[in-house]
Design brief:
472 residues; alpha/beta; Metallo-beta-lactamase, Chain A; Rossmann fold; 2 domains; seven-stranded mixed sheet; 13 helices; 30% helix; 22% strand; globular; RNA endonuclease activity; hydrolase; MBL; Beta_Casp
Length: 472
């Protein structure tokens, strides 16, 4: 068999890995959308490094768009097999892919009505832009999903069995283990998906995978350590008090609608229950986050022991008196005109789309406000530039000075850090032949590779996009 790396190779987005068995059976692991504006990946989302019609089965690790976001595109382009996932992943994809389609449609509409006429007026020969996929394509795609539980081997064809183990990353996230029979031998192939962190709120800790011969491993934070609780909770509360109580400002928290938003809300709920949260309004300004939070409530099988115990004293861990979930755009816009202290949690996490850009535009130039970055941001996005210390930033065509405080708390990340990743794969050393690092920048991958080598791992490779490797 051979593996071809079709996305998230030396990059932190666009996950897709093609496994081709000796009998020609093709399994695609993930089908993610590239998120960002790098010129190298300008056409990534529109093109394939394989023929979609030749893929027999697609196994999805979790619902984040950089892992699932091209599913409607691949179905549209000829894929006719099943999409295999956990039950919770299917539930989340139902809303996340619709949201993604809405963005594709709006982006195409904006380009065709606002940008294209200006280019044609200048004499440029440009064509109308089509959305990558539409809401109708999503509806067809969801019919292809087949859900399975954790910790149960199931067969996708006569030679291949699959096992999902809880990856502890987001609701429904899973590592994928394939038990493959080829030429009279049984080979074990593993894909970590995105690995979560132990002792995090809401979700269970990541479960170790079975020992495998070959492993594809994420490396998002392969060169970094995270802050640990209780320092994290104290740090978070200090930022809230300094911004909203002492400076009377707004605390803007750009957060991914699925996972990160629910974790932040749960922490605020705990602070409110303990009587520590200042009496200030809190807004979750994201329709997708509102829908996702409802889905979190329908999948308690994914909760950790701590949350189950917390439910005994608070039957709604994602709601408290001063919390408002915002759906209507008119209410969202009104938040920009309010001057009283508040906390606004809004998507997107990288600040390159969504309602948070408007909050950023109206708050970034006031020194009483704070922008709290709680996760990875691609370098070319507004979030990435602010993480790097930008003194001004372009928003909606206008340069805005950065006067608000910029705080960073990577401890909120749903990705394991280097030591947590090492612990997750430590037991693989005995059987493992080759470990492939994906879903990380080359700098962090190289640091993590060195760390793995120092800890007894032999063949650790960092594949390039499009590279195919024959597996013994």
């Amino acid at each position: 068999m051979k593996i071809k790396f079709c996305g998230a190779a030396r990059e932190v987005t666009g996950s897709a890995h093609l496994l081709t068995l000796d009998n020609g059976y093709k399994i695609l692991l993930d089908c993610g959308l590239y998120q960002g504006h790098s010129s190298d990946y300008k056409s990534f989302n529109e093109n394939w490094l394989f023929d979609p019609a030749e893929i027999d089965c697609l196994v999805l690790s979790h619902a984040h768009i950089d892992h699932s976001g091209r599913l409607p595109k691949i179905v549209k382009d000829g894929f006719k097999g099943n999409i295999i996932s956990t039950h919770a992943t299917r539930s989340l994809c139902a809303i996340m892919l619709l949201d993604s389609a809405h963005i594709q449609e709006k982006d195409a509409e904006f380009y065709n009505t606002r940008i294209l006429p200006k280019k044609r007026k200048k004499g440029k020969d440009v064509s109308y832009r089509e959305p990558l996929y539409t809401k109708d394509d999503v509806e067809v795609t969801m019919d292809r999903f087949v859900g399975y539980p954790y910790n149960q081997w199931f067969r996708i064809n006569e030679d291949v069995e699959v096992l999902f183990k809880d990856a502890g990353h987001i609701l429904g996230s899973a590592s994928v283990t394939l038990r493959i029979r080829e030429n009279g031998e049984t080979k074990m192939f593993g894909f970590t998906g995105d690995v979560g962190r132990p002792n995090r709120p809401i979700l269970r800790d990541p479960q170790r995978m079975p020992e495998v011969d070959y492993l594809i491993c994420e490396s998002t934070y392969g060169g970094k350590d995270h802050e640990a609780p209780p320092a994290e909770m104290d740090h978070f509360l200090r930022i809230i008090k300094e911004t909203c109580v002492e400076r009377k400002g707004k605390l803007i928290i750009p957060a991914f609608s699925v996972g990160r938003t629910q974790e932040i809300v749960y922490m605020l709920d705990q602070l409110e229950t303990a009587g520590k949260l200042p009496k200030i309004p809190v807004y979750v300004d994201s329709p997708l986050a509102v829908n996702a939070t409802m889905i979190f409530g329908t999948h308690p099988e994914c909760y950790d022991k701590q949350l189950h115990e917390y439910l005994l004293i608070d039957d709604n861990p994602f709601g408290f008196n001063s919390l408002t979930y915002v759906r209507k755009v008119e209410v969202s816009k009104s938040l920009n005109n309010r001057t009283e202290p508040c906390i606004i949690i809004s998507s997107s996490g990288m600040m390159n789309a969504g309602r948070v850009k408007h909050h950023l535009f109206n708050s970034i130039d006031q020194d009483k406000n704070t922008l709290l970055i709680v996760g990875y941001c691609s370098p070319e996005t507004p979030g990435g530039k602010l993480r790097s210390g930008a003194e001004e930033i372009r928003l909606f065509g206008e340069m805005k000075p950065v006067r608000a405080r910029i705080e960073i708390m990577d401890s909120f990340s749903a990705h394991a850090d280097r030591n947590e990743l090492l612990d997750f794969v430590e037991h693989q050393k005995g059987k493992l032949k080759t470990l492939f690092l994906v879903h990380g920048t080359i700098e962090r991958q190289e640091k993590f590779r060195d760390m793995l080598n120092e800890n007894g791992f032999g063949d650790v490779q960092i594949p390039q996009l499009g590279e195919s490797i024959k597996l013994d």
